[in-house]
Specification:
The protein has 129 residues and is an all-alpha fold. Helix content is 64%, strand content 0%. The protein contains six helices and no strands. The two termini are 31 Å apart. About 18% of the residues have low confidence.
């Protein structure tokens, strides 16, 4: 049993070496701090992304705003503890993009409701595991 583990680890190491030998990047550059001339030209070789027009962006924003940033009065409220930096991000989005009366709580409530709706089937399957 011990010999099987050593065989697997050897094949894994060899496969990693094979992958590294085929890459054109500098092998001495372990952390990617320096760019080679081939790395500089690589982004231009990627296929172009389709441009999104201004009307499409406005339409997407209107859908986002209707789904997440609509002012809502929370009737049966509960406290929720979250990290300070996350609170700051939620507050910024709700304050800048939301209508008057949109709060961090209503924005977070909408996000959580959408998340639970999106994963409802998976959650039910996982519950039965």
């Amino acid at each position: 049993m011990k010999s099987d583990n050593s065989t697997n680890s050897t094949s894994t190491v060899n496969s990693d070496n094979d992958v590294n030998s085929t890459t054109p990047a500098n092998a001495d550059n372990l952390f990617g701090n320096e760019q080679t001339s081939t790395e500089v030209t690589a982004p231009t070789e990627q296929p172009k992304q389709q441009r999104i027009g201004k009307q499409q962006r406005k339409s997407d924003f209107a859908e986002f705003k209707a789904a997440f940033l609509a002012p809502a009065k929370l009737v049966n409220r509960h406290a929720l503890n979250i990290e300070g930096d996350l609170w700051d991000q939620l507050e910024r989005v709700s304050r800048i993009l939301g209508d008057r009366g949109t709060t961090v709580s209503s924005y977070a409530n909408a996000i959580l409701a959408e998340h639970l709706k999106q994963y409802a089937d998976d959650i039910e399957i996982w519950r039965k595991l």
